[in-house]
Design goal:
Layout: E1 6-10, H1 11-28, E2 34-40, H2 43-58, E3 62-70, E4 79-81, E5 92-100, H3 104-112, E6 120-128, E7 140-144, E8 153-156, E9 165-168
Parallel strand pairs: 2-3, 2-5, 5-6, 6-7
Antiparallel strand pairs: 1-9, 3-4, 8-9
Helix pairs in contact: 1-2
Enzyme class: transferase
GO molecular function, one term: uracil phosphoribosyltransferase activity
Protein name: Pyrimidine operon attenuation protein/uracil phosphoribosyltransferase
Length: 169
């Protein structure tokens, strides 16, 4: 790890934020039969898995987990998905990422579903950095953080030998 880092969220705080987001998703979708949680690999998918685990305990609806792998450096949408996008028609989609920085990843994630009629589309992130270059907003955020552009937020989840944490570097 670099010398200069600031712990933003510790393991317990991350779990509290994810729990709160799960309850917000439940409140927003209490009358649904099924929701689809699409995690952007790698960090967003880890958070999506945790949300699914919590929601399976507290929600009356079915939860399906989807994974999206994006090429964030491409000027065009390049995505690998583990599902048939047509199966998402008229469903509720919760798109999940770990950090909202410029908004590009969430914009590309939304692009995966652009040709499918959706019932509802929501976004969830653990950390919203407030430096958007794309017109993306979060519906569910663990923490909103104003930083300078040169600073980087890194979320560490399930790393071998490291405790969960969100760091400003």
């Amino acid at each position: 790890m670099p010398d200069k880092q600031l712990l933003i969220l510790n393991s317990q705080q991350i779990q509290q934020k994810i729990d709160r987001i799960a309850y917000q998703i439940l409140e927003d979708n209490f009358d649904e039969d099924e929701i689809l949680i699409a995690g952007i690999l790698p960090g967003g998918n880890k958070i999506a898995e945790r949300l699914k685990t919590i929601l399976e305990k507290i929600a009356p609806f079915r939860i399906r987990l989807l994974a999206i792998k994006l090429d964030k450096f491409s000027p065009f949408l390049k995505a690998e998905i583990n599902f048939d996008v047509q199966d998402c028609s008229n469903k509720v989609i919760i798109l999940v990422d770990d950090v909202l920085n410029s908004g590009k990843a969430l914009a590309y994630g939304f692009g995966v579903f652009r040709d499918v009629p959706l019932k509802k589309f929501r976004t969830a992130v653990l950390v919203d950095r407030n430096h958007k270059n794309f017109p993306i907003t979060t519906d569910f955020a663990g923490i909103a953080l104003s930083t300078v552009l040169k600073e980087h937020v890194e979320v560490v989840l399930d790393e071998e030998g490291e405790e969960d944490g969100a760091y400003l570097r």
